[in-house]
Records
---
Amino acid sequence: MQKVRLGPETLLYPMPAVLVGAIVDGRPNFMTAAWCGIACRKPPAVAVAVYQERYTLKGIREKRAFSINVPSTSMAKEVDFCGIYSGRRKDKSGMFDTFDGSRLEVPMVSECPVNLECRVMQIVEVGSHVVVIGEIVECYVSEDCMKEGIPDPMEINPLIYSPKTQTYHKLGESVGKAFHIGKGVKG
C-alpha cells in the first residue's frame, strides 16, 4: 500500500469535539477542544490540550478544576460557536442549561449526554499548548443514552472533528466486539 508523507501533523482519529468548562471571573465559561482523551485508568484521568491564550485556562488554573462535556452531533453549531469566540469577548455563561459538579465547583452542560467532573492533577507546558491532566472525580450520563446500565455510544452520538478538512462527523456502525474478534487471528 502506498503512503503519502505529510510531515508532523496532529492526525489521530477520531478526535472528539468536547466542551471544556470552568468558572472564569465568577461565571461559567466553555471552550471547544478536539485534543482530548483518556490519560489513565486508575485513577481515572483525562488529558486535554489547551492553547496557552485561552480564557478558560485562566479558570482551570485558578480553581484547579474543570469539566469535559461530550456533546452530541445535534450540538455542532453551539460547539463551533464556543470554538470561534473567546469568553473574554462573548459571555457564554447563558448558552447552555448548566449544573454544578457534586464534588467540585465546575459548570457542566446539561444538554451534553456525557459530563466528566475533573480535578487538576497536573498542567504540562508543551509549546503553544498546555496539557491539562485531570482526575475524573465523577461521571454523568444522560439516562436516555444508557442501554442495560451501560453508556451506548450510538445514543450518545458524540461529535467528532476532522482537523485537515475542518469538518464535524459522527460515529459509524460497530465493526466487532473488542477483546473477541481478534481471537481468530493467527499470530
---
Amino acid sequence: MDTSGLPEGYNVLLSKVKDRLREAQYTALRAVNKELVGLY
C-alpha cells in the first residue's frame, strides 16, 4: 500500500485505533459471556 499521501503519524494513529477497537470487542465479549453464564 502506498502511504506517501498520508499525513505523518497516520500509521501510529491507525494502530492505536485498531488496538482500542480490539479492546472494546474483547470487553463486549466478556460482558456477553458473563450474561450467558448468569442465564444458564
---
Amino acid sequence: MKVIGITGGVGAGKSSVLSSLKEMCHCCIIQADEVARELMMSGNAAFNEVVDFFGTQIIGEDGEIDRPYLADIIFKNNNKRIVLNSIVHPLVKQNIINIINNHKIAGDVDYCFVEAALLIEDHYEVFMDEIWYIYVPEDIRRARLKDSRGYSDEKITEMFESQLKDSEFRMHADKIIDNSLSIENTRTQLEIML
C-alpha cells in the first residue's frame, strides 16, 4: 500500500482530484478537515480541550461546537488560532496515522491518499511515500473561489497569503498535477502516476 499526500492552495480543486482518484483506483481517502471536524464533536478527543480553552459560549444549541462562531474568534485573534491548532492538529495527525496503519494491517486498499492543508508545515512527509502538489495558477483559483464559494477578493487574498507559495509547494512535492484545464486532462495525468 502506498501513502500519498495531496496538497495545494485553496481553490486548486483538491476535492475533485480526490473524487477522480476514488473512481480510478482501490483507495482510502483521508481528509484532515473531516478528521478534525469529527474529533471536535461532542464526546470526541478535541471537544473538551477546545471548550475548556474557549469557554462554553462556543457550544451551540445542538450541544456541538458552533464552528462559524469559533472561526470568527480565531480569525480575529491569531494567538487563539495558534492555540486551537496546537490542540487539534496533533490529534488529527495521530488519528490519520492510526487510519493508515489499520489499512496497512487489513491490506484492503492499494493507496491511502491524505489531504491536509498543513501537510508540508506539519511534516506529514515522514509517513508519506510521496507528496503530490495540485497546481492551479492564482488567477484561476481566485475565479473559482468567487464563483463556487462567493468569497470577496479581500478574503481570497488573505487566504492566499496565509498559505505556502507555489515555489514552496514545488520544493516539497514528488509529483505535480496541473489541475487548471479539464477534468479529463487531470485524470490523464493521474493515470500516469498510478
